[in-house]
Design a protein that fits this description.
The chain is an alpha+beta fold. It is built from 6 helices and 4 strands, in the order αααββααββα. The chain has one domain: Muramoyl-pentapeptide Carboxypeptidase, domain 2. The chain has a 4-stranded antiparallel β-sheet. α2 packs across α5. Pfam families: TRAPP.
Length: about 190
């Protein structure tokens, strides 16, 4: 039995329970590691598009693992099967695990039926990054777009996910919008399910 103030020691890492209380990573440690990821990839590419693609690929791997972990931990290995369900799961649950709060907004696109947007006023990955003048259109939100795409693909909702800066009146920094454009098969399946 564990007494007050005593910590149970595990002999093997496999003996540790998967369900753990709130875990937080140091913001400064994350900022340092992420800036190193950006700097390393910047030396490996020749243009901004390639750099954003590499960040998105890194985020995709994170997203696939986050989905596995959350489905196992919280849902008993059940995954969302409906479009609105997976979007609200992303907007609230995934965002809270990754960033400590729900996303600022989740909106349906007005021009296209297959588009949804998750917006964040100050996305964590863009907070500590200063972009050189020659890379003015570079958006570190590509990493988060990759995470979103990884979660969606893993749940069976293929989509093209991109990150965009959207200027806001009265704000010095633009907000970041993650644009999700679902594959047609997802919309057909959703219509079939009613």
């Amino acid at each position: 039995m564990i007494g007050v103030g005593k910590v149970k020691q595990y002999a093997n890492v496999l003996d540790k329970p998967l369900t753990r209380n709130k875990q937080e990573v140091s913001l400064s440690a994350f900022a340092f590691l992420f800036s190193e990821l950006v700097q390393y990839n910047q030396t490996q590419v020749e243009n901004i598009t390639e750099l954003e693609r590499r960040l998105e690929d890194a985020g995709y791997a994170v997203g696939a693992r986050v989905l596995e972990l959350l489905c196992h931990r919280d849902k008993g290995n059940k995954k969302e099967t409906r479009l609105i369900g997976i979007l609200s799961f992303l907007h609230s649950t995934v965002w809270k695990v990754l960033f400590g709060k729900a996303a600022d907004s989740l909106e349906k696109g007005t021009e296209h039926e297959d588009e949804y947007m998750i917006s964040e006023k100050e996305l964590l990955v863009n907070r500590f990054i200063s972009i050189p003048k020659d890379m003015g259109t570079f958006n570190c939100g590509a990493f988060v777009a990759g995470i979103v795409r990884g979660v969606l693909d893993g749940a069976g909702f293929p989509a093209v996910v991109t990150a965009h800066f959207v200027p806001m009146e009265g704000q010095q920094r633009p907000r970041t919008t993650i644009l999700i454009k679902f594959a047609e098969e997802v919309l057909r399946r959703e219509a079939r399910l009613g």
